[in-house]
Amino acid sequence: MAHEYSLIPKKVPRVETPFRRIVTDLPVPQSLPILERLHACEPIAMRGQPPIVWHRAEGFQVYDAWGNRWIDWSSGVLIANAGHGRQEIVDAIIAQASAHLLTSYCFPTEIRARLVEKLVSILPDPLKKVFLLTTGSEAVETAIKLCRTHGVKSGGRTKNVIVSFDQAFHGRTLGAQQAGGIPPLKDWIVNLDPGFIQVPFPDGYRTPDTSFDLFTHTLRENSIDPSNVAGVILETYQGGSAAFAPPAYMRDLRSWCHRHQALLVCDEVQAGFGRTGALWGFEHYGIVPDLALFGKGISSSLPLAAVAGRPAVMDLQPPGSMTSTHTGNPVCCAAALASIELVLREDLAENSRRVGALLHRKLGALAARTPQIGCVAGKGLVAGLACIVPHTMEPDADLACDVVLRAIEKGVLMFSPVGYGGATIKICPPLVITEAAILDSVAALEEAFAESLHK
Ligand SMILES: Cc1ncc(COP(=O)(O)O)c(C=O)c1O
Hints:
alpha/beta
């Protein structure tokens, strides 16, 4: 669980670099009335957010209203792939809004046609039909529905098992949470659906055995007959750690799903649109799933999500049976089209690969001299630093929280630590970040670690 941040302003050293400026106490005293209004009217669950009140965000930088400026290592929460506040996206949103078409469902629009056509044109075979939604969780719910519909049609009502992975995060709605692999997040559900099962994720760190045998062995141990599996869903990389599975494991999983008529679903809500140094995260595995789920970075801004899949699967549900009120909202479609255009035109996947290589080199060097960093995972412009008690595997959430807070105080913005034991520092800047800004922000992270370990 994220911890709650203090609202008592703290004197912090002034910072001035080409990319960062901190000129006030933090949280900013003048921002307290805003934070207090939020505390008064929002549930406690909203208090896991660092108390930095955003005023404006551009490219890879975030500004408050009191003169402070951060390098953003959050992208919101992996949203702003094409950069914050891009003029092309702003213009597209304004043009669509000015056309006085703000909503349309249940009626078709030309801009919705343009967006699904665009997605189909850049996705590999067989992902050639697309259903638009609003949130990543909705996309996950739709995938679960399609897996079970496909399973029941091809194998009868016992073919309903959804296999997912330990430590997975797929969203907070009922089905998405049950596909997730973080037990405390499911406590409230009480009556868990027995058709959801998790297997170890082959990250090579917390699960040293990365062989595909572990997958089949875990199913056997849980008395799951492969013929009853309707679908296997995984985050292309695990959001909580930024860990990828080995490509060989994924190729075996792809074949296993074919063999047992189970759908393979890649949840690309974080991994899509260039984040990992490839346009689609699953490219790193040399496989294509039956269904791919998108959200976050699809628009770099307004809420939009998508399920892309094999036409035979996408067409399983009859007319009117997959709906959501804001499906394909015209203004969100305009934002997504503009963002996708930027990702492609500026080859931001390549920038992510190139600048990400520098980021990972620097993080690797930091980890090599810091026994409190157990592992650095990720590819491209996503990284996870697992904080541990040295020479153990025990997560150190206090260290991770302290480092994040100190980095924020130095002008590098991150969200609260995530993942196993809440001890993973996640780094995921907009894909337009430059090498100079990476070097500047890593320097701040190094200082934050040094101060935290020697305080
Ligand atoms: C991999 C993954 N899937 C699904 C979701 C849920 O998306 P949303 O918060 O838009 O419902 C998230 C959100 O963090 C995610 O990281």
